[in-house]
Amino acid sequence: MLDFWSDYTIQLVVLGSAMIGALSGALGCFAYLRKQSLVGDVVAHSSLLGIVLAFWFTYLLTGTASKSIGILLTGALVAGLASLFLTDLITSYTRIKPDAGLGIMLAIFFGTGIMLLRFLQRSQPAIPGINGIDDYLFGMAATMTSGDAWLIAIVGVAALVTMTLLWHRLKLFTFDADYASGLGMPIQMLEVVLLALIVIGIVVGLQIVGVVLMIGLLIAPAASARQWTRSMAAMCVTAACIGAASAAAGAVVSATGSGLPTGPVIVLILSAVFAFSLVVAPGRGLLHRRRKVVS
Amino acid sequence: MVSEGLSHAVLPGLVLAFLVTRDYSSPWLIVSAAASGLLMIWLTQLLRRTNLVDDDAGLGVVFSAMFSVGVLLVSTKLRNTPFHSECIIDGNLALAALDQLELGGRDWGPRTMYVMGGLLCAILVVVIGAFKELKLCIFDIQLAKRLRLKPGLMEFVVLSLISLTTVAAFEVAGSVLIVALMVAPPAAAYLLTNRLSWLLGLAAGTGVVSCLVGFYVAVQIDTSPTGPIASAAGVVFLVTLAIAPKQGLLARWFEFRGRRNEMLELLVLQLVSEGGRPALSGLAITPQSTQRRIARLVDAGLLEIDSSDLLVTPAGASALHRL
User: Fold this and answer.
1) The CATH number of the domain where B270 resides is what?
2) Taking CB atoms and an 8 Å limit, are B187 and A96 in contact across chains?
């Protein structure tokens, strides 16, 4: 057991997963409070196209297959933001509802992403490393390198600093955009910053949870944390802790349990935390309610 | 959002039934997967009643958890069967034709065809048979309640049909892209018509076109058909979005241009009637554009050129008066 914990790779993977979980959990609070869970789901799915395109372009340009997550996640970021931008375009010029607009973007981006991925996987001569992209479907924490961990740490610190600096504005905007606008705050600017933060929260999580289940890592920590507190700052911190603990636990289980995909393991842990929070949360949970009814 | 949830949530039911029966063509697969879909809907409604979580978020947590169970089952128990994790995404469309239905020693064609055909008939019967009632439940739930139409039961029937369709499509289309076929064709049809009956027909037609186009592309580039079909559904929507006769972007742009022209011409007319040509210099459009508009108004007989000045004709005056 001691061997296990002193193993450098395991330490790295657990630490990296915890960082990712904390970041996605904290940023997911904004998505949850703005009722944008579906947005998170669609952005996550859409980013597959960005990942595959980034991989392909680097291969075409340099002739070598790069799996540096810096490049792949930049692609994911661009594709995620593009899908949101296009949804906004469609819903503001036609009578198509946001839900349907997002579904269509999922169809285009994820459909094309899968098509391109399968096409590249079958192309001759085989492209080295293309099969590794499959890991982005269901997540694989074990492939993390120390470079990846550093990159995630830097992105995470940048996102958290932005969040802290703009905390009061973002909070006001999240709860009462009209009032924020009345105070003369740059609404569109805040909207873009907030969406960018949510997209960053999604994109870093892809590495461990994968595009398909990313909505779980984004939303479940926030939904659980919401049960325990009434303050947004406390909610963010709690969500970050839940995200970090679940992601680390999931990475350990996955690393020891014969190469299980990390994503489903983490999501199941998070769902258990969510169910637990729903039942026992003080002053709000189902147990509390029952006790109140009895007394 | 519900169809997105459903398409993920049927997976555990499907895998469990397969683990028990070990048979792809067992009807239990469909029953169990549909039950799994209904379980997800029941769980989300339970969550909604607690009022503790936002609806979408509750749905998201429930379906991602159920999907996780499915993925884990596949990757632990079914690692070395044809039912591997690639199927979760891609489905088995290319293999569907290989699974032939044999009855009484004769080959009756692909089994999937009969499953899908039967489902299509069932859906057609329900939709055509209860069209008026369904329409009322969609558009005016209060009146439907007053008329004792049991909107709750209707919703359950419709959701069961959606769940069944999702399951049937899952086997061939894979989990993630079903939502593409459930959302994009109706959205495209919605841009083309306002009538529910037309909407249903057009959506079905759009879906068929998307599938054919997607399948053709898949054959051309030799990949599994799921991705191209979803992608085609999206592209068909985008094309419709561009060229739809009333709601489309092109039509809207032309309409906008037309209205703008009309407004500007009336403005020119108004300015001329107030102060003649000099008053036009205040217009914030280019002189050439103003000249063109004047020429058009003269052609239409609303303005006339008198030596160097412009005059509003009686017809022009009455046009202004109407405004």
Assistant:
1) 1.10.10.10
2) yes
Nearest by CB to B56, which of A35, A45, A278?
A35
User: Does B192 lie in the same domain as B120?
Assistant: no
Q: What is the pTM of this model?
A: 0.82
Distances (CA, A) of A228 to A273, A279, B87, B262: 12, 11, 39, 60
How many beta-carbon pairs below 8 A join chains A and B?
A: 190
Of A35, A90, A220, the CB nearest to B61: A220
Which domain does B190 fall in, by range? Answer: 177-247
Whether A234 and chain B come into contact, CB under 8 Å, resolves to no
Domains of chain A: 2-284 (1.10.3470.10)
Best of A88, A104, A198, A266 to disrupt the B interface by mutation (most B CBs within 10 Å)? A104
Q: Which long-range contacts (CB under 8 A, 24 or more apart) does B34-39 make?
A: B34/B10, B34/B160, B34/B163, B34/B164, B34/B167, B36/B9, B36/B10, B36/B11, B36/B12, B36/B66, B37/B6, B37/B9, B37/B10, B37/B13, B37/B163, B37/B166, B37/B167, B38/B159, B38/B160, B38/B163, B39/B9, B39/B13, B39/B66
CA distance A9 to A3: 11
Same domain, B297 and B241: no
| Cα dihedral: A6, A9, A13, A19 (round 10) | 70
- Enter the ipTM: 0.85
Length of chain A: 295
All residues of chain B having their beta carbon less than 8 Å from the beta carbon of residue A250 are none
Examine the domain organization and report whether B181 and B306 are in the same domain: no
Q: Are residues B189 and B140 in the same domain?
A: no
pLDDT digits (tens, 9 = 90+) for B46-90: 888 888 888 888 888 998 999 888 888 888 777 665 555 566 666
For residues B207 and B146, membership in a common domain is answered with no
Residues B167 and B309 in one domain: no
